[in-house]
Design a protein that fits this description.
The chain is α+β, with helices and mostly antiparallel strands. It has a single domain, classed as Beta Barrel (Hypothetical Protein Pfu-838710-001), CATH 2.40.320. The chain has five helices and eight strands. The protein has helices at about 45-50, 130-135, 140-150, 210-225, 235-240, and strands spanning about 20-30, 60-75, 85-90, 100-110, 115-125, 155-170, 175-190, 195-205. The protein has an eight-stranded antiparallel β-barrel with strand order 1-5-4-3-2-6-7-8, surrounded by four helices. A hairpin with a 7-residue loop joins strand 3 (about 85-90) and strand 4 (about 100-110).
Length: about 250
């Protein structure tokens, strides 16, 4: 996966947002949890997450953090949703709230509960999201139009605010894996209903066979611990359903 250029010496109050592009892959398993999640509706401490979810075999923790992330989803008459494509803008609140990403996540396939996806996106100033999403030359909207095969006019249909809890592990084959516990509040736009949901996701961001094998083995252990198989519905589809999309539309 191509990493974005770091925000070195960036002053979030005064500096212009430096551009950067990311193009990569993701393999993930996700479980939509019950009404109280894993922690009785609480946002857990990272030690609690590490204790609740088994680590990958032969691995050591490498990094962990919590953050809040806001995402807006766009579509045009559900042409993207029906192709399992999410066009989205993401903003991280706090000191870098002026920094945003406009990207596409394209589901290539679901296989035995594992979602294979292509992701691409560009860093931009949050104030420029509305302009860039309508720009035919902007990376993510241009790719979305290419997938549809016709011009589109993206409109915001839903948002989600996520409290994300992440732990990264590196196994003995040098494979980097991560687990994410999300407390996600969806809202249909402009003034629709809200829905609070809880998710557990595990993933890697490479295409090496050993990375996929490690992820598959980990998913089997996590499924056994949770007592339920992983799901096969993207968060963007949950958001679209709240905004009126159905699989028959």
């Amino acid at each position: 996966m191509t990493s974005p250029a770091p925000l070195t010496d960036f002053d979030p109050e005064t500096d212009e947002v430096p551009p950067s592009t990311v193009i990569g892959v993701e393999q993930e398993y996700k479980w939509r949890l019950g009404a109280q999640g894993l922690f009785d509706g609480r946002k857990p401490e990272l030690d609690e997450l590490a204790a609740a979810v088994p680590a990958p075999e032969r691995s050591v923790p490498e990094m962990r953090f919590r953050h809040v992330q806001s995402t807006i989803y766009f579509d045009d008459r559900w042409q993207l949703t029906e192709r399992q494509v999410a066009l989205r803008a993401t903003v991280n609140p706090g000191t870098i709230k002026r920094v945003a990403w406009l990207g596409v996540k394209q589901t290539i396939r679901w296989e035995a509960g594992c979602r294979d996806s292509l992701e691409l996106g560009s860093r931009l100033a949050a104030r420029d999201i509305g302009r860039e999403v309508r720009d035919e030359q902007s990376l993510a909207p241009a790719y979305a139009r290419r997938l549809v095969g016709a011009p589109i006019t993206p409109r915001a249909y839903a948002s989600v605010v996520q409290h994300r809890h992440k732990i990264f592990y590196r196994d003995s084959d040098n494979v980097l894996l991560q687990v994410t516990y999300d407390v996600s509040e969806f809202k249909a736009l402009p003034d629709g209903a809200t829905r609070l949901t809880y998710w557990l996701e595990i993933e890697n961001n490479v295409r090496e066979p050993r990375a996929r094998q490690a992820l598959d083995r980990w998913a089997a252990v996590v499924s056994q611990r949770l007592g339920v198989a992983p799901g096969n519905q993207a968060k963007s589809e949950i958001a679209a359903e709240m905004a009126g999309w159905t699989r028959e539309s």
